[in-house]
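Appendix B, record 7
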Amino acid sequence: MKVLVYSSKNFEIAYLEEANRGKHKLTFIKDVLSTDTAMKAVGYPAISVFSSDLLSNNVLEKLKGFGVKYITLRSVGHDNVNLFTAQSLDLTVANVPAFSPNAIAEHAVALLMALNRRLILSNQRVKQFNFDINDLIGFDLNNKTVGILGTGKIGSVMAKIMHGFGCKLLGTDVKENKQLKIDYNLEYVSLEDLCKASDIISIHLPLNTETHHLIDKKLLEVMKPNVIIINTARGAVINTIDVIDALVQERISGLGIDVYEHEKDIFFNDYSQKIPNDDLLIKLNALPNVLITAHQAFLTEEALTNIAETTIYNLDCWSENKETENEIRFKIKTQKYADRII
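Structure tokens (predicted):
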């Protein structure tokens, strides 16, 4: 099968080629999928897209017109795809349901530890042979309360890790994970109660109409002033303006993020020679108690291998006119944390 791979990154090409083993004709392009670049899919029955590619109504209609039948996502999240439109156009969409929960959860812990123990500031000083340790005070994680928003695959790993540190665990989700309650004494509480009680809040929720700007001024005001918020899920779960205000006013202690609300067209690109025109990102980056990484939580050998193998598996199924269990379809859901419609 001929496949056009949009938004291909240097770090992933070798993994995709290894998983493919010459079965499909993969064409890699760096272009992000948009209304302008959709025409490049002419002649390709299948395309592969990244989380930064936006599959809006217009884009999907163009892809259909150009002969595309299959879309395989190199990601778990699919909030960048209008599934209703895709389904109505008879476009088959599949994702990578779980490439490495460990990678994401471990990165969340890395952000937390770096913030708590002031590792960035410490390293900057030592690079200049300044071994002063003033202003580098952190806190023990042992006996601290960690609130986990979303206790699915990634949230469950986060619970396991934080339990190992000796933390008390609180969780919130639409469906309770009974095993987490048994294994790690995780207690399910309301979102507001979690925010009131937690010393650390780690976000592992999908982005949808219910979770968009879930962390806003109202919730930030009930949090502990020493709380550290970690987000490795989706940027727009946090209201960026509100969290900047809370940081500046010292109503929360720190923020560690691997995702950013307006990261599209910024992340995965080099702007070192020209700072992007984004005042909120500039403000966040300037705050000493904010640590930002460039959507790299998934970036481990194991995760990249799983993403590549699942992507090729989806293509294998389609080339044999079979369904893959990774296909995702539009469903009307009303419950909290349901699939987002865009």
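Remarks on this record: Residues 27 and 310 are 18 Å apart (CA to CA). The chain has two domains: 2-99+301-319, 101-292.
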